[in-house]
Amino acid sequence: MFQLLATLPLLAVLGVAGSSQEPLNRLLLAELVKDNCVSCHGGARPKGRLSLEGFELSAAPPEQLAEMLDRVRSGEMPPADEPLVHESWNDRQRDALIAGITSALAKLAPDPGRPTLRRLNRHEFGNAVRALLGIDAAVEADLPEDASSEGFDNQGDVLFVTPRIAELFLDATQHAIEVFEAQGGPQRVGLVSELGDEDLGPALETFLERAFRRPASDSELSSRAALLDGEEGPRALVASVLLSPHFLYRIETDQEQELPWRISSWELATRLSFFLWAAPPDDELRAVAREGRLFEPSVLDAQVQRMLDDPRSESLATRFAGRWLGFADLATLGVDTRRFQGTSDRLKNSMAQESALFFDGLVREDRSLLELVDSSSTFLDATLAKHYGIEGVTGGKMRRVELSTRRRGGVLTQASVLTVTSQPLRTSPVVRGAWILDRLFGDPSPPPPPNAGNIPADDQQEDGLSLRQRLERHRADPSCASCHDRIDPLGFALENYDGVGRWRDEDHVGPIDASAVLPNGSPIDGILDLKDALLKDPARIARGTSEALLVYALGRPLGPADETVVAELVQRLQAADWKARALVHGIVESYPFQHRRSAR
């Protein structure tokens, strides 16, 4: 069967060579699954509770196909340590199965995903209040941290409103109104209390359009005008707006139809501004939406470029990358300062700034996303440069610095990432390796089994074993080896960096051993080999980045139908030499970003 497969043209394997080939292709793919998967995923107790007995491509649930695709593409499945698989499985069979599953998923009807009613998170609320009222106050400080899902705090499914949160929004609104009045707000935004003023109508229309991110209805205008004529005047009006569902939520119009529909120009403007700025549309974007021209390709392209050039796009670095790469956790992260002397809040702040400015530079300067792995420059101040042992950097201002060695450059070697992937008293090759798989590749490892055991929190034990020796002993358990064989080699290659990201040649037991063998059999030794190995598969890095940014932009988890969207984003990135803005444009132009469907 495998000899037959090897002689078939690639297009036939993909299922695009004509209808006469379809039954044969399905048979070949079913044989691939039978020969390489069913030995584990079959019988009364299939591994992972996934049975692939009698697998048929056209009948498999999309969720199952998407899971299979992730596991096969990452190399996790089929396991390389299975003798029968090792004898028969090769890259051609792997590519054939990936192509077949991808082709099947591509035939799914386009789906913008289940709609959710998205509340503004605390950061978006603060930005929206400041933009509307023209005040300078951190009103979001009155609100609690929002729940996260998929790693982000802007996901619709977890942005609940409990009675307590409702009370806190009321407190934040009162705070905002007090600052608004103290800073002369009513006059600044054109609100007056005399109903007879001829200028009231246009000013109120503009105010409500900015607040609700769409034109106000006649009833909304008349009810707010009545509030202005009351005893409380502008205070009552502002309170009614800030506490309105149309301000607190990103409400989109539903339609009574089964097929998805394209959202309105106003809704697209709102999606776009909260994606790129974590803030509401500005005057120019609202003007384009009002004219109904935002869907014109040249207009949309120009707006995206303008918004990425705007300083407010730094939210992609702080709100997206901060959570995706993990450096947003630095401020509250515990580090043992006796073990890692010199670690201070000032240093941790410099660490976070380096990563934020680095990612912002990728987008603002339209640099290659492959610089996430390896870059010839970074951002340093004197504090962080001293931490890295880099000379010639003075002062407290962060600035771009050209690097003289590949030991630094890219997020893998930034102290922020190396610190958040360590334990308070030691490094963690497991966490660092899992971080690469999860964040850079979008391929998270399953949680450890309940009986997996633990590595001591402090690597300096009386037995004199190195951390690596402890991990080698741990992974000798077959139940642990399957995951650790994927994770640990990546983390071992980073062992020259201590728990706060400083370079070291030795630890407490002797010289650092940063060598490892990757799951594909390639030997590596240290960070330079790791960078080279990762850069051999740029599409994998592009896929992980695309999936993460798409989740952030859509505010929901990805589903099987999104597999085609991600594949298109990767193709677009490849054609653009992996430039960052190609990804942003691709997401904005994608089907799920511009469409909506009814709940079903």
Secondary structure tally, helices:
28
Beta strand count: 10
- The radius of gyration computed from the alpha-carbon positions, rounded to a whole number of angstroms, is 27 Å
Mind summarizing the main beta sheet?
2 strands, antiparallel
The low-confidence runs, each spanning 5 or more residues with pLDDT under 50, are 1-24
Helix/strand-derived category reads mainly alpha
Average of per-residue pLDDT values = 87
Strand content: under 5%
* Global morphology: globular
Please provide a written account of the structure.
This protein has three domains: 2-106, no CATH class; 118-311, no CATH class; 320-450 and 478-535, no CATH class. Helices cover 50% and strands 4% of the residues. The radius of gyration is 27 Å and the shape is globular. The protein has 600 residues and is mainly alpha-helical. Residues 1-24 have low confidence and may be disordered. The strands form five sheets. A two-stranded antiparallel ribbon has the order 1-2. It has helices spanning 2-7, 10-14, 22-36, 62-74, 83-88, 91-106, 122-133, 163-182, 185-188, 200-212, 218-228, 234-242, 245-248, 265-276, 283-290, 297-309, 315-324, 345-364, 382-388, 415-420, 429-440, 467-475, 478-492, 527-535, 538-554, 562-575, 580-588, 591-594, and strands at 118-119, 249-250, 261-262, 377-380, 399-402, 506-507, 510-511, 515-517, 523-525, 595-596. Helix 8 (163-182) packs antiparallel against helix 12 and helix 26 runs antiparallel to helix 27 (580-588). The two termini are 42 Å apart. The chain is built from 28 helices and ten strands.
